[in-house]
Every structure is written in C-alpha cells, then in structure tokens.
Design brief:
The protein is α/β, with parallel strands linked by helices. Helix content is 33%, strand content 17%. It binds beta-D-glucopyranose.
C-alpha cells in the first residue's frame, strides 16, 4: 500500500522515473513515506508533526541533530571556514543558502536525500525580499501604498516564483522600525511606525506562507532582525543599539509580535549589540520575550556569521563559548558561521549543554521541513520555474503594486498630469542618472531578479507616449558611492566617478536638451548600493552632482517634474521650493517605469502616503512624528527656535501625500464621550472627493493619551483605511479603538496597561490632521 502511495506522489513532485531508480533513492523515499501519509497541499496536523519529529530524533545521532542546526552558504564568507554545499548536503546539514538555480538545488537535494544517513531534505533559503524574478517595490515603497494587500499579493508572487525554483524559505519580512534615514536598511522595512509596520508585517507573512506551507506556491517566512537593528548609533549599519524598555515594547517589538501572531515560521536574530548584549546571544529577546511571553514555536536562525561574531563583539571568549551563548539564548540555527557544527558536540560531551536541549533546538527545524512537505516533495520540477516566471499576471501585479506605492509630494499649478495627447507637449526631455538604471529600480536586495525584464523610467515614458511625443534622453552626471560597497563589488558596482569636467559637460548637454523641449522630467535619487546593507549615509542630500543638474535644468524656465528613485527619505528642501512637481517612486521594481509613466500622464491617480517622515535637513534625524510632548510643546514661543538655524518641523510629515483630486474629511463623531476601561470606542468621519476626478485617500486616525503612568507620544497612528472615491462621492469611514489600540507597555507594571484617562483623537490625511475629537476611559 505504501508503494502505491509512493507512485502516486511521483508525478505530483515532477520527478522523472529515471532519477528514482537508484536503490538509495528508493530507500530514502520509502523511509519518508513510512513516516507520512500526506500528499501535496494537505495540511499536516500538529500532532502528526510531533510524532514524526520524535521518530526522527530517536534515530539521529547527536552530531546529526547538530548538523540540522547549521546553515551553510553556497560560497564561504571571508574568514569563515565552511563546508562546500556538496559536503553540507552529504553530512545532513539543515539548510543551504544563496543557491538559486533549480538544477543546482536538485543536485544538492539528491545528495542529501539519497546519500546522507538520515535522508533528511535540505531547507534551501534565500533573501527573497521584494521579489524573486519579478521584482516588486521595495518594502519601504510598498508601505507607502498604505495598503496591506499590496504587500500580501506581492509577497505571494515572490513566494510562488521562489518555490518554483526550489527555495522553500525566505529571510523576509524585515520588520525593523527605522527612524533614522541615514541607516541604509530603512529600505527593507515599513518605516517609522509600529502600527503601520505591524500591518505590513502581517500581510507579508500571509503572502509568503499562505494558509498551507506544503502547497507548491508558498515559502516559510522569517521575521528579522530580532530586535532593534533599525536604531544603530548614528545610523551606521551594525553599530550598537540602545533602546529603552518602553521603546522596545511600544515601538520596536509590535511588528515582530504581529508577524508572530500571523504564524511566521522563523525569526532571525540581529547582528548588533542591544543594550550591550549582542542580539544573537540575547536570552531576554529570544527566550523571555519570543518564547515565554509570545509563545513562539518556530525556530530562530542567526544572521550570517552572527554566532561567530559573538566573539568579534567582545562578548564570547571563543567559538565554543559563542556556540554555548547562542544556543542557550535560543538560536536554533547558525547561519554560515560553522560554529554550531564545530562546537556543540564538545559542549554536550563536556556536560555544559544537555542532549535534550539539542533535541529541543532541532525539533522546530525538523517540524518546519515536515510542514513544508519537503519529505514528500524534496525536489523541484526544473521546468516549473520557466512556466511560473512567464506568468503575465505577476508582471501586471508588479505594475499595480508600483502604481499604488507612488506618492505625489508636490504639484504646483497642477502641472501634473502631463498632457499625453502630444498637443500641448510635443517634445519631452527625460534627464537624469536614475532614468535608465535597472539595478536601482531593483535595489540591492532585488538584484538577483531578472534584470532584462525591468522597465526603466525612460522606457516606460516611451512605451506610454509612442510616437505622439518626441522624447529625448540625457543621463547627466553619474551617481556613485564614495566608498565602494562590499556587496556592490560582489553584485555589480555603481557607475564610475566622472571628472569635474565630464560632469560639467553632462550638465550642459542636459540643459541644451531641456531648452529644446516643451517640458522636462528629471529622474534623480540613489543607485542600488546607496541603500540596503552596509549603505549608511552621513547626509540625506541627493548624492553626487544631482542637485546641480536639477538647478541647471530648472533655470531653463521649462516646466519641470522631478521623479525620485530612492531607498530612503531624502533632503530635497531646495526642490520642494523650486520644482513644480515632485513624484516619489521609491524603489519601484521591475515594472516601475510603466507605473511611473501611468502616474505622470494621469492614467492612474497617485494615492501613496509617506511611511516615514522626510526631514528638512539631515541634522534633524532621527525625526519621527510620534515623539513625546516635552516641556516645550508645539505652539510655545520657544518651540520653533529650538534649532537656531533651521525649523524644527520636517519637510514632509509622516502620512503625507497628495492626489490629482482633493478630499475633505469632516464630521468626526465619537460614539461615546466616556467608555469603561476594556470597552471599545468608535470614531467615524465623512470623506468626500471634492475634486474633478476619481482618486484614493488614506484616512488616518491618531490618538494621544493626555496623562498617565508615563508620558505618551504626542500622536500615535491607530487606524488607517485607503479608499477609492469617484468624483463627488462621499463615504463614511469608521474606526474602532479597543484594547490593542489603547493600551501600552508600562515599565512600572511590566505589562500592558489600559488607563482611565482622557484621549485626543485626530482624523485626517496625514499625521498633522486637524480634525479633533476626544473621549475618556473610565474605571
Ligand atoms: C543580512 C540578512 C540576510 C543574510 C543572508 C545578512 O548580511 O543582514 O538580512 O538575510 O545576510 O543573506
């Protein structure tokens, strides 16, 4: 009967019969089949998972269990001794990362399943951050949509493409809150706010994992980097982080908690010191918070080499101590450091770690493989990838996601949308180093995607206009990093630096072309390796000579639209005063060029909102809307002059974004002026499209608790809804505030508290909303 079942599974998995004909394969398969009666896509009960894990553990040697706790890279990091992927597969190593090719994945999987003693399949992991082949907008850009379905659908496409290549595990979503835009990895998260961050975290987990990990189009997700990585000193990547208990629980943890509640299968521990204890050796984080308080049952993988780096940090004495500290703090899997498989057995033999502890650390790794259906379907159908990536629906989805993420920052005199008929604008200059930069649109983390499929801005504009309008393009001066990036060198570095003379020549060419055309679109921002890992910047100004280029083009007197391709908020204060229209496209992905053209010529109406405050000057960072009131609140005579040289207020507030239409938000009603602690409060408003065309508004609700055991932020986002309204349409939008929205972590009581206090409520178009109401919670 088992054999019949086995044969039924074969075509489903796409195996060729020839491959099955070795004795060891048959034995390996029978073994896995004896352990299960599952077929593809069937959800496996947790009881069965437990039984199967127990069975495996009872047959594994100590070193085999430890090997499951190791992850090996397809190539070794400098200074890190490593097994080759073939050796790793043969020795029953738990996971291999940085292999993308399905043929290579199958080859390694055959070694693991057929030749390793326990025949346990390898879990292949990769950074599928915002797309696999089809690249979606980067997470910060997706967050600008304020539409969690964008994140969910985008990550579902990414999961499908990745799984079709044999990748069953992604190191995403990154849910680190970031309030200092100098930090280059701000691009990978949802920005500064825990409430928006939590919504995006939930949606991404759902997109990646779906409802059944064993289905052929989902992958195991990984919430990273636990925790606090987004707040390094000075914005410098990897630097120490000091976060108070209040901020950890109320600001930095909530997106992780949301990912956990959404069922995320794994967490990644962060690199840096958190309050002087490296996150990867931090028992408070991984044991007290993650397991004891939140009840997380999945597994924690370290960041790359982060276990080995417990020594580098000056925390662990040596490799053995590092293994001890990470394992006892709660790291189940050691990413590429070689520390676990080299040291844990010694620690068990010496009695410092007990074998049952190793069993408990290995258990969730094996459980994940069972839930993913890897024992039944270890191999990937090598023809599937080509079929999946050619699915036109994914391309359309990427364009839709980019459209929904575009944020209009300025539109003086309604210069946008531009005329698309060729009547009023018969020639258009497209200028700037980001107008035709495929890598920049994909970002460092999307650079593994299909570069050929990227539609750049100039291509998108040409696709849109056809021959109705003469389009001329000049690149302008290059953008490059002053200090080359380690990752950039590995993956294809930025443009070379031009001499001052060459730069001047490029600017002159641009001016000539601008003068020759009816209107100009200038595309500026950041190249791929100016954001992402190890890409902090000391200034948020437009890098290189881009502002000089912009000033020269604006000086021609032609109508100018600035389009930004960028991984972080930029200091564009000059442009904000002097350029008529500014469109923030962020990192828009493969379909960015078409989506941007759709917005420029009015086929879509931009509805994105900033998920992070844009400073007026780098010197203002960290700057975020949910700061506390202080003794000098807004409106007091001292407030505005707290800096002697620049205003205190940002360039664009959190939640800001314009539209080609206008909206009014009125009539804030709160259902009851006083509600008992523990009850719910309802706030509703009337939203009306008062302009001439249909458009989207993101209605945002903020609260402030006026007094209590602790000072609470001046405003906190506690509700948002993106709605589409036809011209003249009016709709009520209702928000419910309950325990989750009204409680906060008290460092006095060491728990979440709801206090009988007075609350302010504002509802509006961004975090400076004026429409005000209030209510009280009573005993
Ligand atoms: C990054 C992680 C990433 C890992 C694997 C590390 O350098 O910090 O975010 O998942 O590499 O590529």
């Amino acid at each position: 009967m088992k054999m019949i079942h086995l044969l039924r599974v074969v075509p489903l998995a796409g195996w060729s019969f020839a491959r099955l004909c070795s004795k060891s394969v048959i034995l390996g398969l029978i073994l896995s089949q004896l352990l299960t009666a599952q077929t593809s896509g069937t959800t496996i009960s947790e009881k069965e998972v437990r039984v199967r894990v127990d069975d495996l553990l009872s047959k594994m040697t100590l070193q085999e269990k430890i090997n499951q706790m190791a992850q090996v890279g397809a190539y070794a990091l400098p200074g890190t001794p490593s097994l080759t992927p073939d050796e790793a597969a043969l020795q029953g190593i738990g996971s291999i990362l940085w292999v993308k090719d399905p043929v290579q994945i199958n080859k390694l999987q055959h070694i693991a399943v057929e030749q390793s003693r326990m025949h346990i399949p390898v879990l292949f992991g990769l950074d599928v951050i915002h797309g696999f082949d089809t690249i979606f907008p980067a997470p910060l850009t997706m967050a600008a949509s304020w539409d969690p379905t964008v994140a969910e659908k985008g990550q579902a496409v990414a999961a499908r493409e990745a799984r079709a290549s044999g990748i069953a595990w992604t190191f995403a979503p990154m849910v680190d809150i970031a309030r200092d835009a100098r930090w280059g990895r701000i691009i990978e998260g949802a920005g500064e706010d825990p409430y928006l961050g939590a919504a995006m975290a939930r949606a991404q987990v759902q997109g990646f994992q779906g409802d059944n990990l064993a289905s052929p189009d989902h992958v195991l997700a990984c919430a990273k980097h636990f925790a606090g990585y987004g707040a390094p000193d000075g914005g410098r990547d990897y630097d120490s982080v000091y976060i108070s208990e209040d901020q950890l629980w109320n600001v930095y943890f909530p997106p992780f908690k949301a990912a956990e509640e959404a069922g995320v299968g794994s967490f990644m521990s962060a690199y840096m010191d958190l309050n002087n204890v490296p996150a990867t050796g931090n028992r408070f984080l991984m044991h007290d918070v993650l397991r004891d308080t939140w009840g997380f049952k999945g597994f924690v993988v370290s960041d790359a080499r982060a276990v080995a780096d417990l020594v580098t940090h000056g925390f662990a004495h040596d490799a053995e101590d590092a293994a001890y500290r990470a394992a006892t703090a709660g790291v189940n899997m050691d990413m590429v450091g070689g520390i676990y498989y080299g040291n844990l057995e010694k620690l068990v033999r010496a009695g410092k770690i007990k074998e049952p502890q190793i069993d408990e650390l290995t258990r969730p790794i094996l459980a994940a493989k069972i839930r993913l259906g890897l024992f039944e379907h270890p191999y990937v159908d090598e023809s599937l990838h080509a079929q999946v990536v050619s699915d036109h629906a994914s391309t359309n989805m990427a364009r839709w996601a980019a459209q929904r993420s575009i944020t209009l920052l300025r539109n003086e005199g309604n210069i946008l949308p531009l005329d698309k008929t060729g009547k009023r604008i018969s020639s258009l200059a497209v200028i700037g180093p980001l107008a035709d930069d495929r890598m920049a649109q994909m970002s460092m983390w999307g650079s593994g995607g299909d570069r050929k499929r990227v539609v750049t801005v100039i291509e998108g504009i040409r696709n849109f206009l056809g021959d109705r309008v003469r389009v001329e393009y000049v690149k302008g001066p290059n953008v490059h990093r002053q200090i080359p990036s380690y990752f950039g060198r590995m993956l294809g570095e930025d443009d070379p630096q031009l001499t001052p003379r060459q730069t001047q020549e490029e600017i002159s060419k641009a001016v000539t072309v601008a003068k020759n055309c009816d209107a100009v679109v200038v595309v500026l921002g950041e190249t791929a390796f100016l954001s992402g890992e190890s890409a902090a910047r000391s200034t948020l100004e437009l890098p290189g000579n881009q502002e000089d280029l912009l000033k020269a083009v604006v000086a021609t007197g032609k109508p100018v639209v600035l389009v930004l391709i960028n991984g972080r908020p930029l200091d564009i204060s000059w442009a904000a005063e002097n350029v008529s229209a500014i469109v923030e496209a962020g990192i828009p992905g493969s379909e960015g060029g078409d989506a941007i053209a759709d917005a420029l010529f009015g086929d879509i109406n931009p509805g994105g909102k900033l998920p992070v405050t844009w400073p007026l000057h780098t010197g203002q960072v960290p700057i975020y809307y949910a700061h506390n009131l202080s003794n000098v609140p807004e409106g007091s005579p001292i407030y505005a002059g707290r800096y002697s040289d620049i205003p205190t207020t940002p360039l664009y507030p959190f939640g800001y974004g314009l539209s080609y239409t206008t909206f009014s938000i009125t009539d804030l009603k709160i259902d009851s002026p006083a509600t008992k602690v523990g009850g719910t409060v309802t706030a509703s408003v009337e939203v009306e499209n008062t302009g001439k065309i249909a458009g989207d508004e993101v209605v945002q609700l903020y609260i402030h608790q006026r007094a209590g055991q602790a000072s609470r932020p001046v405003r906190e986002l506690k509700g948002f809804r993106r709605i589409t309204l036809a011209r003249g349409e009016k709709r009520s939008v209702k928000f419910t505030l309950g325990k989750d929205e009204l409680s906060y972590w008290s460092t006095i009581e060491k728990k979440w508290v709801l206090e009988p206090e007075h609350f302010d409520v504002w509802v509006g178009e961004d975090s400076t909303a004026k429409l005000h109401g209030e209510f009280a919670l009573t005993k």
